[in-house]
Design goal:
Largest sheet: none
Mean pLDDT: 78
CATH class: Mainly Alpha
Strand content: under 5%
Number of helices: 11
Helix content: over 70%
Low-confidence stretches: 1-8, 284-289
Structural class: mainly alpha
Number of strands: 0
CATH architecture: Orthogonal Bundle
């Protein structure tokens, strides 16, 4: 019981340090608030239905009724931006979580067992990393076909090698530590050592990379939509809005401007969030080392 109490106190102390360090980076909270507003609160703060058409107000300039104007079908741009952010974040977060799960396991297994298995696995990851993420994603989407599920899977596959390499490096160090050697001496199975000891110790590095790659996944999803391999219209996505806005860019530049700015703010906010997580997790930046 005393040991459990001490562990609980240590966990609370660590949590307080993380929160205090995270609060010291105010910019990270700005990113978090922007993400919440665009994803969770879209149904409540959107002034109109994103699919509702006001044909009498086609290509209307920003006004009191339409704060950011309307598109060529009379749809409110602000509403479509908010719902587009909701969809983009869903695709980005889900695809990144899939990549985290498989990439972390692959990297941890390669680092834990080493030898020929590590060589084969990491060379396969290097081959995938040799292709730009957008090109590799295009090939996968072209093979699987358009659709939300296929798009999410394609983006996840492009992120797996990064997580595998990120998980392998610290695993090579952790596998030689005393508690891993003690576990092997006690006869613990490899699965237990990996799940209960390796993965929790490499989680901080993976968490920071996760926040960064969510933004990358959103950018890739928008790129797919821009070239016609994303979700079909009239689904509101930032990439599709940018693509359709190019047809009237000279007369109505706001059609391209606003979704581009929204994409920039979202990715920048996620990078700020990643910086906050890094500052909170790294003991050197917290002043503990």
């Amino acid at each position: 019981m005393r040991k459990i109490a001490k562990l609980g106190q240590a966990a609370r102390h660590h949590g307080q340090l993380v929160i205090r360090a995270f609060n010291s980076n105010k910019a990270s909270w700005v990113g978090f608030v922007l993400i919440v507003l665009s994803a969770i609160l879209a149904p409540w703060i959107a002034p109109h239905d994103p699919a509702e058409q006001f044909m009498e107000a086609r290509l209307a300039q920003p006004s009191a009724k339409f704060l950011l104007g309307t598109d060529d079908l009379g749809r409110d741009i602000l509403s479509r931006l908010l719902y587009g952010g909701r969809l983009s974040l869903t695709v980005g977060i889900v695809s990144t979580l899939i990549a985290v799960f498989f990439g972390s396991i692959i990297g941890a297994l390669a680092g834990f067992y080493g030898g020929l298995f590590e060589l084969l696995v990491m060379q396969t990851m290097d081959v995938l990393l040799a292709f730009p993420s957008l090109i590799l994603g295009l090939v996968i989407v072209a093979m699987l076909g358009p659709g939300l599920t296929n798009l999410t899977v394609a983006i996840a596959i492009t992120s797996v090698p990064a997580f595998a390499r990120n998980a392998r490096a610290p695993t090579l160090i952790i596998r030689e530590r005393e508690f891993i050697l003690a576990g092997r001496t006690l006869g613990y199975r490899d699965a237990r050592l990996i799940v209960r000891h390796i993965l929790p110790n490499i989680a901080p590095d993976i968490l920071v990379l996760t926040s960064m790659l969510v933004g990358t996944s959103i950018r890739v999803e928008s790129s797919f939509a821009f070239i016609g391999l994303g979700l079909p219209p009239p689904t509101p996505t930032w990439g599709l809005m940018i693509r359709s806005g190019f047809e009237n860019i000279l007369d109505s530049p706001w059609l391209v401007l606003w979704p581009s700015v929204a994409l920039l703010i979202c990715v920048f906010s996620l990078n700020l969030l990643g910086d906050g997580l890094r500052d909170a997790i790294d003991p050197k930046l917290r002043g503990e080392a």
